UniProtKB/TrEMBL annotation:
<keyword id="KW-0436">Ligase</keyword>
<dbReference type="Pfam" id="PF04107">
    <property type="entry name" value="GCS2"/>
</dbReference>
<dbReference type="GO" id="GO:0005524">
    <property type="term" value="F:ATP binding"/>
</dbReference>
<comment type="function">
    <text>ATP-dependent carboxylate-amine ligase which exhibits weak glutamate--cysteine ligase activity.</text>
</comment>
<dbReference type="InterPro" id="IPR050141">
    <property type="entry name" value="GCL_type2/YbdK_subfam"/>
</dbReference>
<dbReference type="GO" id="GO:0004357">
    <property type="term" value="F:glutamate-cysteine ligase activity"/>
</dbReference>
<dbReference type="InterPro" id="IPR006336">
    <property type="entry name" value="GCS2"/>
</dbReference>
<protein>
    <recommendedName>
        <fullName>Putative glutamate--cysteine ligase 2</fullName>
        <ecNumber>6.3.2.2</ecNumber>
    </recommendedName>
</protein>
<keyword id="KW-0067">ATP-binding</keyword>
<keyword id="KW-0547">Nucleotide-binding</keyword>
<dbReference type="InterPro" id="IPR014746">
    <property type="entry name" value="Gln_synth/guanido_kin_cat_dom"/>
</dbReference>
<dbReference type="InterPro" id="IPR011793">
    <property type="entry name" value="YbdK"/>
</dbReference>
<dbReference type="GO" id="GO:0042398">
    <property type="term" value="P:modified amino acid biosynthetic process"/>
</dbReference>
<comment type="similarity">
    <text>Belongs to the glutamate--cysteine ligase type 2 family. YbdK subfamily.</text>
</comment>
């Protein structure tokens, strides 16, 4: 059977779009509230211009931007949309929760959205699929040619622990402190099409892989591959899906700026004939685990020679290195918010600190919900 080509709709500019998954919480019980359908209807009636998507779970809404040339432009759209979502949540008596997972909600009491593909995923994946009380951030960046896609993805995987450590916000699960900074990362990779991408060398290898997945029936069950970083051929982008959902737009803007700068940086290395970085698959896997386990306290592998550095040192140097490019791309102030996150502590650290002091995840949920309102994005 001949391999069917996958058309990549090339992006003439490195534009970006952002998807942010947030959940609805009952302010009395602090448990998740399956009211997304009602909330989306309220927003659609009052603000039809706002783009919201129903997600896997009925407690979740996804805010989706249009195509933007700058991070501030995308964040401004999300801020306007978030205000409309909060207005509807207030009307329903709910709070908004942004984190990688919920620390005590029972997956058995959280219904899946009424969509055939979701029901099929649950039927296929059973126990692990049923547990997906998790939320993330997806950032799309436009790529000019399909032959650049996999070299850039492989290079981005060398920065996986930096991106995850910066956003890790899921320390609690089933009432327990898991000891992990991002338990979401560990859960999500249990799904058969999720996890680290293979290190394809070119677009033809990707087409061959997808051809095999189609013959074997994988795509029929899932619709697509859910790799941590993957091509989005329909949009002409690379989709970076590494990050836990942040509790607020201020921190989301920082990781979006870092992603935008890194993708453009690697794209320009190709322009200049430079070799892009790549790590052995076992180093990439180890770095993913270390970032999920230790977050901002991780010691990460930085070279094929197995050199190691603290991830906080890596992040500080990345801000310095990428600042000239960030200024050109219009996101310097957002990139420099990384220093603020390092000083404040990561989302997982803030939640865990409250839990260790009080023994009560509900207070951590209150504080995290409040961050959605208090940690505002920058004004431009």
């Amino acid at each position: 059977m001949p391999i069917e080509p996958i058309e990549f709709h090339r992006s003439p500019k490195p534009t970006l779009g952002i998807e942010w998954e947030i959940a609805l919480v009952d302010p009395q019980t602090r448990d998740l509230a399956p009211k997304a359908v009602e909330l989306i209807k309220l927003v659609a009636n009052a603000h039809p211009e706002v783009h919201l998507e129903k997600e896997f779970l009925q407690n979740t809404v996804e805010l989706v931007t249009g195509i933007h040339e700058t991070v501030p432009g995308a964040i401004n759209e999300l801020a306007a949309d978030l205000a409309c979502v909060k207005e509807a949540a207030d009307e329903l008596g709910l709070r908004l929760w942004g984190s990688g997972s919920h620390p005590f909600s029972d997956f058995r009491t959280n219904p899946v959205s009424a969509k055939m593909t979701y029901a099929e995923i649950i039927e296929r994946t059973r126990y692990w699929g049923q547990q997906m009380l998790i939320w993330g951030i997806h950032v799309h960046v436009g790529i000019s040619h399909e032959e650049r896609v996999w070299p850039i993805i492989n290079a981005m995987m060398t920065k996986f622990p930096q991106l995850l450590a910066l956003t890790a916000s899921s320390p609690g699960w089933d009432g327990l402190d898991t000891g992990y900074a991002s338990n979401r990362t560990m859960l999500y990779q249990q799904l058969p099409t999720a996890g680290l991408p293979y290190q394809f060398q070119n677009w033809a290898e990707w087409e061959s892989h997808m051809h095999d997945q189609g013959i074997s029936g994988v795509i029929n069950h899932t619709g697509s591959m859910h790799f941590d970083i993957r091509p989005a051929a329909k949009w002409g982008t690379i989709e970076i899906r590494v990050a836990d959902a942040t509790s607020n737009l201020r921190e989301l803007s920082a990781v979006a700026a870092l992603i935008h700068c890194l993708v453009v940086h690697f794209d320009r290395m190709i322009d200049h004939g430079q070799e892009l970085p790549i790590l052995q698959p076992w180093h990439v896997a180890e770095n993913k685990w270390r970032a999920a386990r230790y977050g901002l306290e991780a010691l990460v592998i930085t070279s094929r020679n197995t050199d190691e550095r603290w991830v906080t040192e890596e992040l500080t140097d990345l801000v310095d290195e990428l600042s000239p490019l960030a200024e050109e791309l219009g996101c310097l102030a957002e990139l420099q918010l990384i220093w603020e996150i390092l000083e404040r502590g990561g989302g997982y650290q803030r939640q865990r600190r409250i839990y260790l002091q009080t023994g009560d995840w509900k207070l951590a949920i209150d504080a995290t919900c409040q961050e959605m309102e208090d940690l505002k994005p920058l004004d431009h």
